[in-house]
Amino acid sequence: MVDIDDDTPDFTASLVTDELAPFRLSEHLGEGPVVLAFFPAAFSGTCTDEMRALRDGIERFGPDTTVFGVSTDLPHALRAYREEYDLPFPLVADPDHRAVEAYDVVSDFERYGVDVVARRAVFVIDAEGTVTYRWLADNPGQEPEYDSLVAAIPGSTASN
Asked: Where exactly are the transmembrane stretches of this chain (predicted)?
């Protein structure tokens, strides 16, 4: 399990903005803090509440912070989801489970017959690539404590 003070695991996936592109986490480190917000499924209730909360609070994160929502959904589904909810940050499509396995945030939707989804989790990574914050949901309907997340981001309105 990735923990605070660990070097962040690198992974590859698909970056979903208005376009689709290859993604490697290490290529996005070094400029400022990175927030990885793992979520189980696009268009589901709690996931949508979480992504909208991140969208609505993003100005609190500080100007140098990069946010990525990470899900095992397919890229085209995430592009539609991002557009539907006007998310200002990129999403990362991880259908091959590289990210969820690297961060050990694997869960399932057994009742729907889905073996691997992301466990709801949030990691903050500093510019040097070190994990400085980790939050893991105890149950599928739990959202992060947003004030604690903001406080953990260097340069955020709460850490000034």
From this structure: none
Statement: the pTM of the whole predicted model exceeds 0.85: yes
Residues 6+ apart with CB under 8 A from 44: none
Q: Which of 15, 47, 87, 118 is catalytic?
A: 47
Catalytic annotation on 158? no
Phi, psi of 154 (to 5 degrees): -60, 135
The neighbour count for residue 29, using CB atoms within 10 Å, is 19
Token pair recorded at residue 33: 């803090």
The structural domains of the chain, ordered by start, are: 1-8+37-65+108-160 (3.40.30.10)
- 36 closest CA partner among 48, 23, 25: 25
Using CA atoms, how far apart are residues 8 and 42, in angstroms rounded to an integer?
Answer: 24
Tell me the average confidence (pLDDT) per consecutive run of 10 residues in the chain, 160 residues long. 95 97 97 95 93 96 96 96 98 95 82 74 96 93 94 81
